[in-house]
Structures are given as C-alpha cells and as structure tokens.
Amino acid sequence: MIAFDLDDTLYKEIDYVKSGYRAIAAEASRLGLIAFEDAVAIVEEAANTAAGLDELSAIISQNHRGCGFDVARMLHIYRYHTPQISLSSATRNLLDRVKESGEEMALITDGRSATQRAKISALGLNRYFSPENIIISEETGADKTTPTPFNLLMEHNPGAERFVYIGDNPAKDFRWPNALGWDTFQLNDCDRVNIHSQEIAVAPEYSAKHAVNNITELLKFL
Q1: Which residues, other chains included, contact 179 with Cβ-Cβ below 8 Å and sequence gap of 6+?
Q2: DSSP label of 45
Q3: What is this structure's pTM?
Q4: What is the pLDDT of residues 151-186, one digit of tens each?
Q5: Which of 17, 39, 44, 167 is in Cβ range 3.0-4.6 Å of 173 for a Cys bridge?
C-alpha cells in the first residue's frame, strides 16, 4: 500500500492558492467592484493571504461601501471554488505506473472536506484511489499529528504486506507512519515554493527515512 500526501506532494499547493485568488478576483470583477487584474495583483503582491484579503477588502469597501464583499465572503469563495490545478506529467506517470503494477494506493491529507475533495476532483485523482483509501482529516476528526489516519488506512487494508507514505512536511507527515513501521519518503522542495518550509529542526522520529528530489525518483523505490 503506497499512500500519498496531497498538498505540495502530488501537486504544488501554491497553484491552488493562486487559483483561489483568481476565483475571488473573478467574482469581484463580475460584480463590478474592481478590475480582475487589479484584484489579483493586490492579493498576490501581499506578504501573505490574510494580508492580501484584508487589503483587497479595504479597497473595495472604500470604493463600494456596504457592498458586503468582505474577507469572510472572500474566504468562502476561496475555500469552495472549483480549483484550476493539474497534475504534472511526472506525477501522472508515477501514479499510472504504480496503478499498472497492481499496487494499491491511498491518499492521506489534512484539511476541510469540501476543499480537499474539490482538489481531488480537479486533479483527477479518483481514478487512482478507492473511496475507502481517501482519508481527509475533517472527515475523520483527526489529522496527521495523530496516528488516527494512518491506523485507519491499516484497518481498511488488513491484507497489505507493506505501507509507504510519501509527503513533504517534516513537521507532521512522517512521525506516525515511522512509529507504525511504515517506509517514509520526503519529496524535497527543490523549487522552494512549498507552503510549509522543510527547513525546520525536528526530532529524528519526525524525519522521513528517505528523501528524493523529484517524484520520478520514487519509481526506483516503489
């Protein structure tokens, strides 16, 4: 059983972030509140998402007082929009190769159910993972800082001879699969665009047993 993280492992999460920004800008433009390009520029050039949405909300409120296009509404659009994201050819090739080999695959990801399900659909991942092997923290009530999602996958697949987890975040991706005897792989952020930095100090039990610089390198192990 080969299990994957989702964000910054199977695709770059920054692509989802930018997709959310465009969705917000498109709605603001549709309502005649601000030009699409101006809205995108405001949020993309801010120090972070929160600062960008605050600034965009303030500008819109100043020019269209009482319009109701506030941060709460922007966050709702961001979290529930249909994301414009896709798998890289290398990731798609890896998933196809593993599927063709007959090895079962799974997805263990933290986040809101609606948001993560929208990403899964946009990326076409349902063809690779059976429903019981898609584990999302909001749906289970526990995230990867606990053993729960990993234990659930083992319970769902009692006949599996081995378990592998591939992720990116040393703060939470590898601690529990390591403890459960899984093999673990960190996909290195060579482009330095991941949402969560890998340049953090962690105890040995939090570190992946192996590291690869690109997803294609996994083929020689899997």
Answers
A1: 147, 205
A2: T
A3: 0.94
A4: 999 999 999 999 999 999 999 999 999 999 999 999
A5: 167
Identify the pLDDT of residue 216.
95
Evaluate whether 42 touches 52 at the Cβ level (below 8 Å). Answer: yes
Structure tokens at 65: 């007082």
Q: Are 156 and 179 in contact (CB under 8 A)?
A: no
Instruction: For residue 220, report the phi and psi dihedrals to the nearest 5 degrees.
Output: -70, -20
Low-confidence ranges of the chain (pLDDT < 70): none
Return the sign of the alpha-carbon dihedral for residues 147, 148, 154, 155. positive
- Secondary structure of 88-126 in HEC code, one letter for each residue: CHHHHHHHHHHHHHCCCEEEEECCCHHHHHHHHHHHCHH
User: Could you tell me the two tokens for 1?
Assistant: 């059983």
Tokens encoding 78: 């961001």
